[in-house]
Amino acid sequence: MSTRIERLAARLDDPLLVTGLVNVRYLTGLESSNAVVLVEPAGEATLYTDFRYAEAASVVEDARFEQTPRAVLPALAERFSGRRIAVEAAHLSLADAETLRRGGVELVSTSGLVETLRAVKEPGELDALRRAAAISDRVYAELAAQPFVGRTEAELAWWLEQAWHEEGADGPAFDAIVAFGENGARPHAKLRDEPIPADTLVVVDAGCAVDGYRSDCTRTFFTGEPEGRLRELYDLCLRAQLDGLAAVAPGAAGRDVDAASRVAIGEAGMSELYGHGLGHGVGLDVHEGPTLRPESDAVLEPGNVVTVEPGLYLAGDVGVRIEDLVVVTTDGCERLTTVTKDPTRVA
Predict the structure, then answer these.
(1) CA pair distance 81, 106, nearest whole angstrom
(2) pTM of whole model > 0.90?
(3) pLDDT, tens digit, 9 for 90 and up, residues 51-62
């Protein structure tokens, strides 16, 4: 972890108070609900948390530990009085900022300093992500052998919850999406207790966590023969996904990778059915940088881990989405999720 703190320190003009809990974990290894770390430009780091996490914090090797009351920031306002401190604008509430200012702390707003480091994965992080993706592949293969018709979306989501643990994951990476028919046309659909019928599409978007790192994968299944209009929609989405994958490479702009996934859909006259970005970064968070969206200013580099997930959503009818998790390499990308994307009929 010390290398991470050193790399962060080298980017600082002022001491940085890291308040984002995922960022604290990334820098120190401490997982908690109430901790901050102060990183000095010279490289020293001090970890502040309360009694509940004192034992775990005391053995963190790369930061000095100081115990505080449970109200960490009011206590630090007094300690930092008269100092100029940089803060993470995305992770410090207005109320907490005011608490520090009232204590006499001069605040300097910053954005994305730790997240920029997190975007390029280290070998150990990639190992955890590969293990999570391998579990995802096994669970999706097992899922395809499960009966769908007559079971509810909620029942299949519960099956997934159990399967992650049985395959050795820490648990789910996020609440699974299982959505058939018109519910599948909602990109972030909510689970229903309605039985899945024959002759429709079922979108399954799920992932697991291993050592804090997430997998994220989507497959769309057929509950009837993969033919006709539904097959045409599926094949178009798959074409867009393959085009997006082919565009992922070091030096590629996020917006250009996104654009590559839209060509076939645009040529088919269905651009309005693909209303979200192509992908996002994945790591300790299931949504982090870099992004692959029309408005993205990201430029990909080796070690980035991103999703590639175009979708088509016909409101009141059906949806289809196909998603892989990939790592950017020196000459393209490596798929971490490799379960089949062939049109799959389930029972």
Answers:
(1) 8
(2) yes
(3) 999 999 999 999
Tell me if 304 sits within 8 A of 290, measured CB to CB: yes
| 109 SS3 class | strand
Q: Is residue 217 part of a domain?
A: yes
User: Alpha-carbon distance 67 to 96, whole Å?
Assistant: 19
Q: How many domains does the chain have?
A: 2
pLDDT digits (tens, 9 = 90+) for 187-240: 999 999 999 999 999 999 999 999 999 999 999 999 999 999 999 999 999 999
Q: Report the side by side order of strands in the sheet with 177-180.
A: 177-180, 201-206, 217-222
How much is the pLDDT for 1?
56
User: Are 237 and 321 in contact, with CB atoms under 8 Å apart?
Assistant: yes
User: How far is 276 from 221, CA to CA, in rounded Å?
Assistant: 21
Say whether both 180 and 319 belong to one domain. yes
For the segment 13-34, the average pLDDT, to the nearest whole number, is 98
CATH number, domain at 206? 3.90.230.10
Structure tokens at 304: 């980035």
